[in-house]
User: What shape does this take?
Amino acid sequence: MQGFDRMDDIIIATSDIEILGWVKAEGLNYEQTFRSNSSTVENCAQVARRFWSSDIILDIPLDISPEVVKALHEVKGKMLEDSWMQIACIRKRIADLTILHQPESIKVVCDRYNKVLFVSRAAIPYNRNENPGSGTWYEYLPLHAFRNKSLQEITELRPSPLESSEQIEALRWLENNYAMYAFGE
Assistant: This one.
């Protein structure tokens, strides 16, 4: 993967037998994770507990574009600069307004310092007094950089009411007062 100093820094974490077969055939580093893990975040935490003394862990799906991997690597750089940052993710400006009303697209609202205030499947923020086509909206891309300590802590949290309603894991973290920052266009 482009944007990483060494391929040794990358471990493919999955319980999927088909993916494991491909990874083994390619000679890549891998770790078979528990089938009971409910998310890639739990897979990352499992591998990080076992292998890493690193402070920052990246959660990158295999099917992601090189541009997004590069953006996440830049987010890692921001976390290295700011030791107080616990969790970071990628956001992307929504240009096609039809995406706003698609529930499979998760929207994010941040403060002026890029701290995530809320994520939702609904069109947020809602512009009550403006033309519906005016405004700026961002899509939340669930690709994360974590402080290893925070990663281990959040995987111990119980699902929250907001998470259960929206089916967005990040709401569990926000509801438990973990700060998440979103970077991107």
Remarks:
- DSSP finds six helices and eight strands in the chain.
- The beta strands are 12-14, 30-32, 56-59, 87-93, 107-110, 116-120, 138-147, 180-183.
- The helical segments are 17-26, 40-51, 66-81, 148-154, 161-166, 170-175.
- Residues 1-8 have pLDDT under 50 and may be disordered.
